[in-house]
Amino acid sequence: GEDVEQSLFLSVREGDSSVINCTYTDSSSTYLYWYKQEPGAGLQLLTYIFSNMDMKQDQRLTVLLNKKDKHLSLRIADTQTGDSAIYFCAESRKNRDDKIIFGKGTRLHILP
Amino acid sequence: SAVISQKPSRDICQRGTSLTIQCQVDSQVTMMFWYRQQPGQSLTLIATANQGSEATYESGFVIDKFPISRPNLTFSTLTVSNMSPEDSSIYLCSVVGTVSYEQYFGPGTRLTVT
């Protein structure tokens, strides 16, 4: 199957770290992505990771991939009010013509 | 990254009419995709549009309802035909950048059908 699962909501206090989790079922996934969608806006490619990597860090963002468990996470350090958005986990395979399968999105709510 | 624009950004249309959405990219790209995001939902791929060939539709989407044009490497249109309220969604254009695994999205077209 081609399922990408993620929890729907996450509340985090400003300044804390946010960890958004995602699981996928396709073991042949090649690329895994995190997209951010702010209210009324399109999708912004935040970061991505190849399936042969375990971790990728980009400023406040850290992506961890556990390929054995098919588990992907996005950690946002020092969460700020501007991080409030929906975060979509997604995966693609080269032999699927680059089609991306999206999860349902996790709505990150920042508490003051 | 690719810069993608869509027109219109939003529209309110009457049942039974059709709307054509335009997608313009600032660079030549081989692969373009059209997605739909229904209210409160995730993204669903409608079709893949490659220049010089017929669009490839995903299960549940047909050419008569969502005809697509891809006249060149920087432009595509998606038409939503004979609209009903169930077609109320955000429609997003997407392209694969020069680096093949980076896929970028346009700002979307918010369609409301009354």
Describe what you observe in this structure.
The complex is a heterodimer of chains A (about 110) and B (about 110). With about 110 residues, chain A is an all-beta fold. In chain A, about 0% of the residues lie in helices and about 55% in strands. Chain A has strands spanning about 5, 10-15, 20-25, 30-35, 45-50, 55-60, 60-65, 70-75, 85-90, 100, 105-110. In chain A, the strands form two sheets. In chain A, strands 2, 4, 5, 9, 10 and 11 form a six-stranded mixed sheet that branches. In chain A, strands 1-3-8-7-6 form a five-stranded antiparallel sheet, with no helix packed on it. Chain A starts with a strand and ends with a strand. In chain B, the strands form two sheets. In chain B, strands 2, 4, 5, 6, 9, 10 and 11 form a seven-stranded mixed sheet that branches. In chain B, strands 1-3-8-7 form a four-stranded antiparallel sheet, with no helix packed on it. Chain B is mainly beta and about 110 residues long. In chain B, a hairpin with a 5-residue loop joins β5 and β6 (about 55). At the A-B interface, β4 and β5 of A face β5, β9 and β10 of B.
Summed up:
The complex is a heterodimer of chains A (112) and B (114). By secondary structure, chain A is mainly beta. Chain A has strands spanning 4-6, 9-13, 18-24, 31-37, 43-50, 55-58, 61-66, 71-76, 85-92, 100-102, 106-111.
